[in-house]
Design brief:
Length: 456
């Protein structure tokens, strides 16, 4: 609007000034033509005696001579050549031009009856100043109006969208596991129906999740009794193993392996049901991170022929970790390491290295550490980027479902890893290992419940 107003006003003012100047120039040209028909007054005086507007100067070409009221500023050379040629050839002309940076308007009137041509030059400096003032005023008004409109629009949109922000906050809280979150409509009539529908949906979702959690917990508990009986029976059979036929011994081995796998799955389901019901709790102890990882790795290693557990991969503990203390649930952390080692053994050719380091990795005296990272690298072919997050979902088997289905895994190990780490306020993710394989990175905050990352 400011631009349209400015250019419309500018054109109107220029047109009015040009019309006034043309009227004055033609009137002065008529006076000079009449005076030249009866030459009584010298031409110089005649040009100077013409009644001109303020800021205008007259130039006359008569019988090959040029006369001007101000020959220094406005003379023959000051008038544009195109203007001179048109007027001297008998065509009236008007042209805008500039003298020393000052805008000018020249109007030329041919006087063929007396073999002359009259030019009148009008200064537009005052008009240019007026237009500059108008442009500044319009620009200032446009700026103030824009800022005021933006502030008013932001305030109005904020009030209009405030109900939606409540719903958004509630949805975020529910996505974070706070299923008892509800939206309060308050006095907002427009939000009342939406809040009611949202709360019904949330209540149904909470009820369904709780029923599924109870079902999983109940089934898992009901399975414990027959599993205990089966385990006792297998134990009895193992004591009389030498009395069994070779085929019966093979069958007993298969039964024992499946029973262990089934028992492990039931234990995992019970652990998951505790996470889903919110009854999982931490039993924190202050430990040395390096010693904790060494003990967890040793406990997760298979038993050798000498009856001792020995890890077949190196464990590197960075020097900047030795003076740190970590508060962690040792049982849950050992379960995390056992699941990661088992996952690498089953699907990635085994673990190549376990590294314990602080994060961020800077000078200890300059920046206090905030987190501890445990990195487990494996021999595997790597994991596609689009599958990495899904690997922490329950029973997810990825692109190698056939291989996993035939393995000893239950499909719950990595999901339990994510749940245990989340309970500590940490995070776990997958990266490409240098050269070959994958890196499972576990990050635990030195203060439980505080983490820079969103836990999986």
């Amino acid at each position: 609007m400011a631009g349209i107003t400015y250019f419309t006003a500018r054109q109107s003012i220029l047109n009015e000034r040009q019309t006034t100047a043309q009227r004055q120039a033609f009137a002065n040209a008529s006076l000079i033509q009449n005076a030249l028909r009866s030459p009584v007054t010298p031409v110089n005086q005649l040009v100077e005696s013409v009644d001109t507007l303020p800021g205008s100067r007259s130039v006359l070409h008569s019988r090959g001579q040029w006369y001007a009221t101000d020959p220094i500023l406005v003379g023959e050379s000051a008038i544009p050549s195109q203007e001179r040629n048109l007027v001297l050839s008998g065509t009236p002309a008007t042209q805008f031009f500039s003298i020393n940076g000052t805008p000018q308007l020249v109007i030329g009137v041919p006087l063929p009856a007396v073999h002359a041509a009259y030019f009148e030059v009008f200064s537009l400096d005052e008009l240019e100043g007026t237009l500059r003032t108008l442009a500044f005023a319009l620009a200032a008004a446009a700026l103030v109006t824009t800022l005021a409109g933006a502030a008013l629009g932001r305030r109005a949109s904020g009030r209009a969208l405030r109900p939606l922000s409540r719903v958004t906050d509630a949805a975020v809280a529910i996505a974070g596991g706070q299923l008892d979150t509800r939206v309060e409509a308050g006095d907002d009539v427009d939000l009342e129906e939406l809040a009611s529908a949202f709360n019904r949906m949330t209540a149904n979702l909470q009820d369904r999740i709780e029923r599924e959690a109870r079902f999983t917990s109940d089934v898992s508990h009901e399975l414990r009794s027959p599993l205990t009986t089966l385990a006792a029976t297998v134990g009895v059979l193992e004591t009389h193993r030498h009395e069994l036929a070779p085929r019966a011994q093979s069958a007993l081995d298969l039964l024992d392996g499946d029973l262990q796998r089934f028992t492990r799955m039931v234990d995992d389901l019970l652990e998951i049901s505790r996470f889903d019901s919110g009854s999982a709790e931490l039993s924190l102890d202050e430990v040395d991170p390096g010693e904790l990882v060494l003990r967890a790795v040793a406990n997760s290693a298979p038993i050798g022929s000498n009856g001792q557990r020995t890890a077949a991969f190196p464990v590197e503990i960075r020097p900047d970790v030795k003076d740190l203390r970590l508060r962690v649930d040792k049982r849950r952390f050992e379960r995390v390491m056992a699941n990661l080692v088992e996952n690498a053994s089953l699907y990635a050719g085994g673990v190549t290295r376990v590294t314990v380091e602080r994060y961020p990795r800077t000078n200890i005296s300059a920046t206090p550490p905030r987190n501890i990272r445990v990195i487990v690298e494996d021999h595997g072919p790597g994991i596609p980027f689009d599958e990495r997050h899904h690997l922490f979902e329950r029973f997810y088997r990825g692109g190698r479902a056939g291989q996993r289905a035939s393995s000893e895994g239950t499909g719950l190990g990595l999901s339990l890893v994510a749940e245990h780490i989340r309970l500590h306020g940490g995070a776990v993710w997958i990266e490409d290992a240098p050269g070959h394989g994958s890196r499972f990175v576990v990050e635990l905050p030195l203060s439980p419940g505080e983490s820079d990352r969103s836990p999986l």
